[in-house]
Specification:
Strand content: over 45%
Largest sheet: 7 strands, mixed
């Protein structure tokens, strides 16, 4: 299992930016596809973005395309989510996920504890 710790959440005004980080423990990070998910109050957890093991392939939810960018630094065992042009509807707890392949069910992977992002209007 990969241990994941998210950071970088906070309170920001609409139109602002935040960068989330997810630090992974262990030597298996480079062999894991990574993803970001979010869960707003009263809603189900939803996919935000994913990146392949090498970083060569990425995927985004339609709601964040053009505003969010996922990246990874395998030397630092860290995955990032750069969030720009934030909207109040982006408010949620953001979770990092690690799994073997991007196509795998994220429920079969590892999760971090989450970091709160709040966007004020």
């Amino acid at each position: 299992q990969v241990q994941l710790v998210e950071s970088g959440g906070g309170l920001v005004q609409a139109g602002g930016s935040l960068r989330l980080s997810c630090a992974a423990s262990g030597r298996t990070f480079r062999s894991r596809a990574m993803g970001w998910f979010r869960q707003a109050p009263g809603k189900e957890r939803e996919f935000v973005a994913a990146i392949s093991e090498s970083g060569g392939s990425t995927s985004y939810a339609d709601s964040v395309k053009g505003r969010f960018t996922i990246s990874r630094d395998n030397a630092k065992n860290t995955v990032y989510l750069q969030m720009n042009s934030l909207k109040p509807e982006d408010t949620a707890v953001y979770y990092c996920n690690a799994r073997l392949r991007m196509s795998d069910n994220p429920a079969m992977g590892s999760w971090g504890q989450g970091t709160q992002v709040t966007v004020s209007s």
